[in-house]
Amino acid sequence: MAVTLGLRMEEMIFNLADTHLFFNDLEECDQVHIDDVSSDDNGQDLSTYSFATDGFHAAASSANLCLPTGVRGGVDWMRKLAFRYRRVKELYNTYKNNVGGLLGPAKRDAWLQLRAEIEGLTDSWLTNALKSLSIISTRSNCVNVLVTTTQLIPALAKILLYSLGGAFPIENIYSATKIGKESCFERIMQRFGRKVVYVVIGDGVEEEQAAKKDIIINSLSDKLDLDNITRSQQ
């Protein structure tokens, strides 16, 4: 039953990522952090911008611009890449407390039903986790930070569908797909400094090692084992 529910949620995650978060365009252009290409953004108004016809996807596919070692493209192409990540950030911040509004009525009902079934099967683990995360996020001197081995775009979709957006600001989410968790932990320490108290929550060796080094990530690893989802598993 858990596997079945997990697969249903996985399908919903990729559907949201493809439909609203440009995963078809960004799958091969994955970033560690939402702002990693923001320096290429010229701030253009995107209210009437046509992502579907700007030629980004065709150029990326034909020129192999997104490589494992990093993104390589011209100024115009990099700007279009940055536009997509800016739009993803806007959508996340708009719907982080109301993903149902992004899904639409039919998919919203299916999502609510699935969430209810997961809660029933797991003795309301998500409700309890959200309560803990909310307590942390309301403290003036505390923040929640999340590191995941899932690519950034489907990870954001997953966070929205599990209603975790309110607990994790998008600036505090890191994808370790390209660089590994250790490097993500180091980036976080550079950002917040080494004179703060770090607490690591996770279920793997990397989190255990990080905890021993006084590093933090408030990493919620869910019981349906969706942390490592990739499109090949879809």
Automatic annotation (TrEMBL):
Pfam families: Hydrolase. It is an enzyme of class 3 (hydrolase). Its main location: cytoplasm. Gene3D superfamilies: 3.40.50.12350. The keyword Transcription regulation applies. It comes from the Eukaryota. It catalyses: O-phospho-L-tyrosyl-[protein] + H2O = L-tyrosyl-[protein] + phosphate. Transmembrane segments: none annotated. GO terms for molecular function: metal ion binding; protein tyrosine phosphatase activity. GO terms for biological process: cell differentiation; chromatin organization; DNA repair; negative regulation of extrinsic apoptotic signaling pathway in absence of ligand; positive regulation of DNA repair. CDD domains: HAD_Eya (cd02601). Its cofactor is Mg(2+). Its EC number is 3.1.3.48. NCBIfam families: EYA-cons_domain. Belongs to the HAD-like hydrolase superfamily. EYA family. This is Eyes absent homolog.
